[in-house]
Specification:
This protein is 36% helix and 18% strand. With 495 residues, it is α+β, with helices and mostly antiparallel strands. The strands form seven sheets. It has a six-stranded mixed sheet. Strands 8-7-21-20-19 form a five-stranded antiparallel sheet. This is Penicillin-binding protein.
Length: 495
Amino acid sequence: MNKPLKFISRTVFGMFLVLFFSVTMIQFVSADELRANELNTRTIKNGYKVERGSILVNGDPIAFSTPTDDSFRYLRQYSAGPLYAPVTGYYSHTQGMTGLEAAMNQDLSGIGNAQFFTRLMNTLNGVSPQGSSVETTIDPAAQEAAVAALTEGGFSGAVVAIEPDTGRILALASTPSYDPNLLSSNSDADIITNYSQLEDDPGQPLVNRAIAGDLYHPGSVYKLLVAAAAIEAGEAKPSSEYANPAQLALPQSSAVMQNASRSTCGAGAKATLEQAIVMSCNIPIAELAMSMDRDAVPEMAHAFGFGQDIEIPLAVTPSTSEIPEDQAQTALSSIGQLDVRATPLQIAMVSAGIANGGEVMTPYLVEKVITPDLRAEKEFSPETFSTPISRETADAVGEMMEHGVSNPEGLAQNAGIDGVRVAGKTGTAENGTDEDGNDLPFTLWFTGFAPVDDPQVAVAVVIEDAGGEAYNFEGGSSDLPTAVGKRVMEAVLSE
């Protein structure tokens, strides 16, 4: 064989190997990922040839497919659309899929690897293909209470409620919400029109504020992590005392820190760590943070989940807590400002970990996958995410949170529930100034758990643009998220 023929033969053989490798990657290695891609419209169109499984809350379908006479064969419907939109997401011809519709698509559409033998048997028996149903962990009473409290107040915000000892997500609410039915009709023209209107809505209803979006400065709820880091390291205890000025000049900076009350933290010359948590004072917390290594609090935050990839199975935007560059940044970060940002899910994990004796459970939204013949195909069980603090530290922080509710001076006292020991912490985060130099409205927080002696629910509430000038730029607006959190906790405990 002459040289040119050898070259051509080797080239063709090499191309065959590349083609074989590519086909193998596409058809086998990457097949599940490509099918699950929300931009893969072929998967969605093929999915309409199958009766898609339902998404369930307490056994009742909140997303389901019904037969039609058109070419799509099925119509995806949502029985309580806006209420559960942050959970279900949507399944749309033209706009892809989000929420559990995307995260659990293979199970819902019946194309998952676990359903291979079911598909094979159905083919042999002549049974029409059908997807499996997904049972969620959502507590309908908690979800309804969360959405009602937010919408009745006209708030843009979110609520996440978690069962501390398991990680089960009991409520996942985001407002303003939207109706997934607007994006799941069998009319592409209607879907495109409706999607454009939702995208252009200044309220951003398509953003799931509970787990994603631009994230929020956590404000004073972040002080729980400062206290946890200090107590766990043996550098403080609730009775530890700190200087109590009305103003604190930050080191190597022209900035001056004040407490939300614009006065001292109590009447004494010294303020304890417990006073700082109960009354949500900035200056003692900043002094404590500056007395520790600059990486101490960010490392504690990371142990609770900040900066880590979390899937519930919806992808959660990682919260951020960078290591400060100097003492001034350390002080500002310690009160949940500067570059510290968090999702409500992350803050709920902090309270849940404290409630659970220092053990943070991995949050999860899916209880089990149920086959069309009602067999439990997959069941999800609690898993430990991390153990960032000891039970002694958790008890100490939890006790200070409880005093924030039971103490008459506590800013979280409106979270009190008759006959129940409740732990809570409020937060008010500043958001800078506008182009004219005017202070922007605040971001308001509440997080807590109940009952203290047998925690059944941990909650985090965030409300956008609800503080500020209307409350003289003070912490007096803390009753807004606190009332929401109380309502959700009551809903869980009343069952």
